[in-house]
Design brief:
Layout: H1 2-19, E1 31-34, E2 43-45, E3 50-52, H2 57-63, E4 74-76, E5 97-101
Antiparallel strand pairs: 1-5, 2-5, 3-4
């Protein structure tokens, strides 16, 4: 049974890589938890890094200075490295990777 499950996971992983994500086009600022340690196109890991406002103005308009930055030249992405799926802080073997969409559909305000 474990062998079958491994093959199913491998096949779904290969399909996802070859055809892109299975989900619909993401919204800018959407955060997803993933089980792999690489980022796909238009996504960045949530590790608190600096981003220049001039490089991604749309994402800045949604996040602002909520996670840090000076508000004039740069802002920061959220740092979710030690956040567990239930929202608590801690460590977990094989911990999930959180990624934020930096280029996608701008969410409507209505």
């Amino acid at each position: 049974m474990k062998k079958i499950l491994k093959y199913v996971c491998l096949i779904s992983f290969l399909i996802t890589i070859s055809s892109g994500p299975v989900f619909a086009e993401p919204y800018i600022g959407e955060i997803r938890m993933t089980g792999y340690h690489f980022t796909q196109k238009n996504w960045m890991p949530c590790v608190g890094q600096k981003i220049e406002i001039s490089v991604n103005n749309a994402l800045y308009s949604l996040l602002g200075r909520r996670y840090g930055g000076d508000g004039r030249t740069f802002f920061r992405l959220p740092d979710l490295r030690h956040t567990l799926p239930d929202g608590k802080k801690g460590w977990l073997k094989g911990k999930p990777i959180y990624q934020i969409c930096i280029n996608g559909i701008y969410p409507s305000r209505s």
